[in-house]
Amino acid sequence: MAQVPLFVPAHVAARDSVARWVPQAGPARIGAVAVFASAASAFTLALVWLAAQGDAAVFVSGLLGDRLRGAMVGAARDVAISLFGEQALSAIQGAGAIGVSLLFGGFLLGAAGTVVGIRRLATVSRR
To answer: What predicted TM-score, i.e. pTM, was given to this entire model?
Structure first.
């Protein structure tokens, strides 16, 4: 019987976990209840305000998203200018998405061809 695992219901385990954080003294317990109740009330009021001001939350999140996107595009443009130069960037912008895709595909084909060629040279030199 000493080897039999003891089953503890979930609500008892939760109560025991919370009991470790609750003070034992009466005045301290009242203070803890006041602190927890005020924190819960503040959280509830914040959620009610957010639900009532849903359009404002959507507006602010959209505004922040646009600013973040603009900052990322600006940073990417600055990196591209410093890597390739202003003329290369204007050529890339003139080529459009299809031109950039073809350039990228050509780069990948060239890289793959280089890897295949180097491997073939390495295997031929071993023989």
So the answer is: 0.41
